[in-house]
Amino acid sequence: MTASLFLLLPALGALLAAVTDFVRFRIPNALTLGLAVLFLPAALLAGLEGKEMLSHLGAGVAMFVLGGGLFLARLWGGGDAKLFAALSLWLGWSKLLLFVFAMTLAGGFLALALLILRRISWPEAIRRKPALRRLLGAKAAVPYGIAMAAGMIWMLFHA
User: Fold this and answer.
1) Which of 32, 49, 54, 115 has the most CB atoms less than 10 A away?
2) What gap in Å lies between CA 67 and CA 132, rounded to an integer?
3) Do 84 and 148 meet the contact criterion of CB atoms below 8 Å apart?
4) Per-residue pLDDT of the chain (159 residues; tens, 9 = 90+)
5) Helices and strands in the chain, H and E counts
6) How many CB atoms lie within 10 A of CB 101?
7) Three-class SS of residue 136?
8) Which range marks the domain in which residue 78 is found?
């Protein structure tokens, strides 16, 4: 199984997380837990062996701890931390740095775009939409699930 095919499922999960993060500023626990649980059968089907499996498990656990720290520091939401850990599980240490680079780059562009969009005086019809009102609010957080999805899509083509 090619790396791109192996990463298709978590990329689709990340896209779903991005949509829910955009609309509700929430990433469902069922989604992140589902991604984590599906890793093991997918890894076995893909033929991952001992050391490689440990690399993936180690990356997932370490990034869960790191994400938890970012959550406790109020830099990330809980859903972001759990999604990051679940995606890291699928990537392993060998692909994690490239993913973090792509995710961070996408997150920077997203934050810049939101800074610009939040300065625009939007018509009332747009401001009434709940998802847009939350997203464009001056004090609103950045839905980082979008950046994680962009990073996973990048990984589909560069893994």
Assistant:
1) 32
2) 26
3) yes
4) 566 778 899 999 999 999 999 989 999 999 999 999 999 999 999 999 999 999 999 999 999 999 999 999 999 999 999 999 999 999 999 999 999 999 999 999 999 999 998 888 888 877 788 878 778 877 788 999 999 999 999 998 887
5) 8, 0
6) 12
7) helix
8) 3-158
* pTM for this entry: 0.91
Would you state the structure tokens that stand for residue 72, as one six-digit string? 């406790």
d(CA 72, CA 91): 24
Residues written for the chain:
159
